[in-house]
């Protein structure tokens, strides 16, 4: 198969592109390297079945050029940060909504039958019902969550109007190798690991009792491929299906890394949700998804990667 991976130089996209190459597919990566890094794909970029196009999903002509003859698009490109969207909602709107509509339109123009796209658990906001299931009414709390929800609605409308199969995967908190620990907006696990590696205390925003449903990146990769191959359409939660609070997470990481540095606490961040836990039964029924990695196993792999890759500084 010939697959397009937008955002394929990013954390999740590069892990996905690598697996698709390993599975024998042809892969076209479209990425503007805004938060992604060429280093993430340096081991596959010279592969005869890999093409890298440096460019933006806001560029429709570029997407239409890239999509010719493709069997499917994995759309991962986005401004993937709640705080960044709070600071600059216009940019998030242009890339996440504009880019997604472009990807869908390019699929239509090029006759690409299927788009599997990254959505987010942030769509559920602070609804007190747990676990979160896909029929719940969305209550986005940030421009980022609004942008992802709009993408889902566009996906449904493009399915209905133009017959493109669209699947939106609501990732919960993804972690694993290549996740960027350095940006101001970095996710909690790479931040904790790299601070502990530097002998510094992890920083927790809030009291640390907020919970997250973490999922290892290779489980997310498998979910994408299962969704594409199964032909399932609609919206699906992709998560570990278990939750842990940030105080426990810091303790777990300390144990795995053999360090005991207590966290320090700072004020909660605007737009962050308090708790998160997914019902993953819809994805299990539709395309056989269930996580293969236990949380501690994924954490161990991630710690090893950060230690060995020397990539965190
Ligand atoms: N990491 C998570 O926990 C998580 C959770 C929910 C949803 N998601 C979604 O998963 C997807 C991948 O996120 P990630 O964590 O790998 O983040 P990431 O920042 O590592 O990856 C995003 C990639 O998209 C690229 N990109 C950004 N704007 C672009 C543009 N205009 N044109 C082309 N490429 C562009 C970036 O350079 C980067 O390579 C995103 O859609 C994100 O919203 C991630």
Quick summary:
The protein is an alpha/beta fold. The chain is built from ten helices and 13 strands. Bound molecules: nicotinamide-adenine-dinucleotide.
List bound small molecules.
nicotinamide-adenine-dinucleotide
What is the CATH homologous superfamily assignment of the domain at 2-174 and 216-241 and 278-292?
Answer: NAD(P)-binding Rossmann-like Domain
Helix content: 40-55%
Tell me the Rg in angstroms: 18 Å
- Estimated structural class: alpha/beta
Q: Main sheet: which strands, in order across? A: 3-2-1-4-5-6-11
Mean pLDDT, as a whole number? 95
Q: Please tell me the CATH architecture of the domain at 2-174 and 216-241 and 278-292 by its name.
A: 3-Layer(aba) Sandwich
Q: Might you state the CATH topology name of the domain at 2-174 and 216-241 and 278-292?
A: Rossmann fold
* CATH hierarchy, class of the domain at 2-174 and 216-241 and 278-292: Alpha Beta
Question: What are the segments in which pLDDT stays under 50 over at least 5 consecutive residues?
Answer: none
Percent range for β-strand residues: 15-25%
**With helices defined by DSSP (H or I, 4 residues minimum), what is the helix count?**
10
Topology:
Elements: E1 2-6, H1 11-22, E2 26-31, E3 50-54, H2 60-67, E4 72-75, H3 82-87, H4 89-110, E5 114-120, H5 143-162, E6 165-171, E7 173-175, H6 188-197, E8 203-205, E9 211-212, E10 214-216, H7 217-230, E11 234-238, E12 244-245, H8 246-257, E13 264-266, H9 281-287, H10 295-309
Parallel strand pairs: 1-2, 1-4, 2-3, 4-5, 5-6, 6-11, 7-10, 8-13
Antiparallel strand pairs: 9-12
Helix pairs in contact: 1-7, 2-4, 4-5, 6-8, 6-10, 8-10
The structure holds nicotinamide-adenine-dinucleotide.
Nicotinamide-adenine-dinucleotide binds next to helix 1, strand 2, helix 4, strand 5 and strand 7.
């Amino acid at each position: 198969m010939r697959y397009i991976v937008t955002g394929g130089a990013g954390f999740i996209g590069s892990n996905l592109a690598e697996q698709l190459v390993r599975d024998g597919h042809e892969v076209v990566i479209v990425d503007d390297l805004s938060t992604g890094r060429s280093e993430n794909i340096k081991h596959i970029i010279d592969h005869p079945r890999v093409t890298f196009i440096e460019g933006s999903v806001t560029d429709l002509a570029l997407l239409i050029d890239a999509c010719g003859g493709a069997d499917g698009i994995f759309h991962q490109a986005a401004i993937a940060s709640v705080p960044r969207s709070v600071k600059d909602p216009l940019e998030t709107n242009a890339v996440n909504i504009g880019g997604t509509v472009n990807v869908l339109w390019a699929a239509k123009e090029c006759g690409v039958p299927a788009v599997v796209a990254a959505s987010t658990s942030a769509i559920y906001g602070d609804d007190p019902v747990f676990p979160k299931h896909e029929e719940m009414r969305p209550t986005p709390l940030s421009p980022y969550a609004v942008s992802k929800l709009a993408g889902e609605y566009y996906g449904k409308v493009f399915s209905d109007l133009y017959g493109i199969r669209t699947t939106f995967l609501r990732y919960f908190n993804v972690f694993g190798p290549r996740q960027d620990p350095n940006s101001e907006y970095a996710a909690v696990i790479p931040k904790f690991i790299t601070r502990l590696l530097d002998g510094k205390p992890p920083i927790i925003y809030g009291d640390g009792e907020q919970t997250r449903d973490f999922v290892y990146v290779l489980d997310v990769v498998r979910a994408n491929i299962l969704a594409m191959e199964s032909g399932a359409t609609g919206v699906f939660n992709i998560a570990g299906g278990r939750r842990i609070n940030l105080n426990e997470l810091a303790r777990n990481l300390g144990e795995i890394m053999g360090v005991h540095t207590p966290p320090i606490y700072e004020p909660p961040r605007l737009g962050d949700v308090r708790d998160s836990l997914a019902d993953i039964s819809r994805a299990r029924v539709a395309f056989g998804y269930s996580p293969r990695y236990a949380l501690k196993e994924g954490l161990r792999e991630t710690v090893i990667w950060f230690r060995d890759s020397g990539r965190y500084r």
